[in-house]
Queue: 2 jobs
Job 1
Amino acid sequence: MSNRQWLLAARPETYPQPEHFQLVAGDRPALEPGKALVKTLFLGVAPVMLRYMRNETEFQAPLAIGDLMMGRGVAQVIASDCPELPVGSIVQARLGWQEYALIDTRQDPPPFLLAHHDLPYSHGLSSLGPSGFTALIGLREIGAVQPADHILVSGAAGGVGSQVSQIAKALGARKGVGIAGGPEKCRRLISAVGYAEALDYKQGNINTALDQLFSQGIDLYFDNVGGALLDEVLSRLRRRARIVICGAISEYLLPREAQHRFANLQNLGRQDARMEGFFVFDYGQHYPDYASEIADWIRAGQVSPVEDISRGIETLPLALSDLYTGSNVGVRMVHVADPDPMP
Amino acid sequence: MSNRQWLLAARPETYPQPEHFQLVAGDRPALEPGKALVKTLFLGVAPVMLRYMRNETEFQAPLAIGDLMMGRGVAQVIASDCPELPVGSIVQARLGWQEYALIDTRQDPPPFLLAHHDLPYSHGLSSLGPSGFTALIGLREIGAVQPADHILVSGAAGGVGSQVSQIAKALGARKGVGIAGGPEKCRRLISAVGYAEALDYKQGNINTALDQLFSQGIDLYFDNVGGALLDEVLSRLRRRARIVICGAISEYLLPREAQHRFANLQNLGRQDARMEGFFVFDYGQHYPDYASEIADWIRAGQVSPVEDISRGIETLPLALSDLYTGSNVGVRMVHVADPDPMP
């Protein structure tokens, strides 16, 4: 009845690596009043976790050395004293990096039930979870995507970025141009991830490529990267362009004094353009609707989630560091266990 | 039957000065089919005119040396072959800097009729014209102003800035904190312009003052200035803050290589904040509604337009240069003539 857990062992100075974590075997928790005991099926990783590990976010409780590493996952309720989380249901929740967790509906953000059991549970960490919802919200609610938009996506091979072009197309817009690092990733952006064109930021002059592909400018930039590339985009905005700030992974790895200083920000005003950040969990009340929309697109073949899944809870630190070393395509996650058979 | 006109004589390298203009006496135009002949009553000036003079805007036809200087004003229709512009009506339109103009409804943006004849016609260049509409649109449509917002306004003594705090209050929000240059302007920001507090950017350390007045951060920044001050604001955003980009006068006067480079832009993403520019003429269909709303506030004493009016068309170049030398408070305009008595 053990419960393996990953604890925070050290705070990373650059990117997260295995030595920043410690795997321990604790006891499986007992059910408590008002709570549900869940068995972890999948655990996700996200670039923002580096900021949790460094205590850089304002919206998360501080994470101390020796604390259970925070993270969301998909889990099966195996015992419950919580009517909203019945035994056998599949939830997406803040589980922490562990095999079993006690959860309740007072968590902020609260757990949500996966409703589309005809689709793989892993999708609860990709298209049917916050990363897919982030792509949808960013494109539609923040980016006000239009059919004729010329769309550029940075971090296009990443967890969110790998969903943006497909969802843009499902929303009636064109496929996007995706930016990623390396020829193999760029090849996959087109063959598997649904991009019309791929730009390799490690190869040649990306500005020349942007000039060619966006000769009339960029209408919608879905940004996962920040930094100098964002500045280049700011200089190429069309009138009433929209920049959706989803992430700025290039900045997370740099000390403040080394971060990019933007020369073209005032072009936002000149082009009557908009730049906006958002927090997916502010849209929690809409999750069931978003999940139904995206599930229908998956069933219709319009959206094909690209998932990069390693097996075993011991692979979690590596999964996280993969996000920073740039080696994965799609939504990176870890398969922890299969669900228990239910009566 | 003469028609005095100001022509562009030279392109400014820094700010517009009298030597960049030439006053000539032409002939008063004859009425043409489909057009209206109007007599200029007031002419307005705006910081963006420097960009017209330098051909830096994309939305205006190029202005050649020797061309009539562009500009909007309030005028009386004195002869008409245009049913939408009947004789005796008062219009706000692109007149150019001249005493008489031929206008028609095919101009882009088109003329609009002043509907509230119980109020001074000069208001057609302040609260009942694009500068007042800019304050309203910026606060409400772009800034989504909320009752509890802590509001900061740069260029608070200027044509648009002098209207922002009053309109914010009329919209149910708090008065703003205004930034202007010099103790006399700051005194007037509070006594006449409707600001709760005034910050003198020429005196002391504005960052310390911002720290004190916005200890919990800034919710809404109405920016007329751009540059280093905008960067300071970016570092002080509250969650879901909004930056309304109305102008960037600090940048207009600088060559590109001297323009500010922004260190704190990524904070926009961290705070799930928004930054957006807009073009008042995109909202033309709503002008009658905006004018009615603001006219009601004026009648109720909630909005008191602050107008800085010099007399005589010969004062136009000086009126424009005043915007850049920072000597005026309120909407700067020139009174050109009184209306003809109408039968």
Job 2
Amino acid sequence: MQTYIDCYPCVLRQVIEAARMANASPSQARKIVQETLDILKSLPEGATPPAIGSQAHRTVREITGNQDPYAEVKREATEKALSMLPQLHKIIDSSQDHLETAIRLSIAGNIMDFGPNPDYDLWEVIEAVLHQDFAVNDLPKLYEYLGRSQSILFLGDNAGEHVFDKVLIEQLTLPVTYVVRGGPVLNDVTMADAVAIGLDQTAEVMDNGARVPGTIVSMCNPKFQERFRTADLILAKGMGNYETLSEVQAPIFFLLQVKCPIIGADIGVPVGSTVIKKGLDT
Amino acid sequence: MQTYIDCYPCVLRQVIEAARMANASPSQARKIVQETLDILKSLPEGATPPAIGSQAHRTVREITGNQDPYAEVKREATEKALSMLPQLHKIIDSSQDHLETAIRLSIAGNIMDFGPNPDYDLWEVIEAVLHQDFAVNDLPKLYEYLGRSQSILFLGDNAGEHVFDKVLIEQLTLPVTYVVRGGPVLNDVTMADAVAIGLDQTAEVMDNGARVPGTIVSMCNPKFQERFRTADLILAKGMGNYETLSEVQAPIFFLLQVKCPIIGADIGVPVGSTVIKKGLDT
């Protein structure tokens, strides 16, 4: 997805938030904002929002020296998600279609963004996602792909959300490789976050080598690039993966909650929508 | 009030909104955003948010050729406010303290920002402002000033809101000079807007000569500067006037709704607060 001008204020807002999370001093924060204005001024043609985010969050790390400003937020989100596990399993066990319910729960987990929500919010989202219609529903096509694929490349998104992904992976019969970011960036899931919840016991976990809040294939390590090129089914969670992969031809399905009006407009659905969307045909 | 870094994304968002209201083409909109990034990059020390807004909205006018992007929004807000007049008068007539009620209504009208709200919202705000405590309450001091002043310099804010100001002015026994902006900028009230509702029948109306969504005295015309310098009581409506005059020594009272967390933090009250605040002592 291209960067729309409406993304500019949002990038700036996010960077200020990150500077605050990194305990930037007022002068550091001003410097971070100045450098972000420079980044926005000189965007290369076709830069996606996560590409900008990647640069901007590197600036935050470089200026503050804080390598993981969202560490605490990620820890809290993960703890909250772990505390919900027994209930999530109960919901699946008592459902008619375990796989669809697990897919819905994984998408519901995508709401775990920008820090923890109060309990009732998260449960409200889960209730809604369990019962609402998909605004884009390529689930039948996803089932087709599941039936004819040998394995799944699963692109993770946020920490906390990855607990919900683990619940889904447990319901999948195909072997899964779970891909995490190459290092801390925003609240995105990393190898340490995955190992901390035992995701490496449920799936192969690999990092893509890039510190980008999305998946820019050309910036990833050769191992990931090879896996991506040869995958027969890719599940991509969240908005960052959508923004960076929506125009890439691959056997990919985007599973996300639409939390931003710009991405909503790009997909053609309102904010709050639950989406399972097949990517560009290969 | 100084410009906080949190104001940057907000300025950018506002300018994109203004570009859209001015029917900017995609390339014009990109140019407007680029120029706004330049403005933000090279802010002079101590520039207030309305000073930036003034520059940014001039850019919108220059690039699109649209001299008044908010004309329609202002017209609709004014019509809505006029349609409420009979009820506003009824509220005052049936109140115990006509003046305080009129002051509260004038502050409630300050919610008429960024276009019209659905009816029930506005009435909800009016209900709340009529009954809630002031988060900062310099009303007793304002009454003192009203008792010892010869006249009032009344600094208007938004179109639509000015209808509520007229209702207040009708309750004031002192002669009032109502000050409007020097030309259309954002949805701020201008001479044409004031004359359209007959404000010139209730008060002397003058424009301050500056196309700024606030009051930067040094940018105003000599006539206004003289009036400002010699005033014994100034009422200043809304956030833009607060942002530009909060550090100016003058016999000024700010009447506003706090609609922005940054201004709230500056005053020390939460968003949604109703404020009557005495300015810096002379």
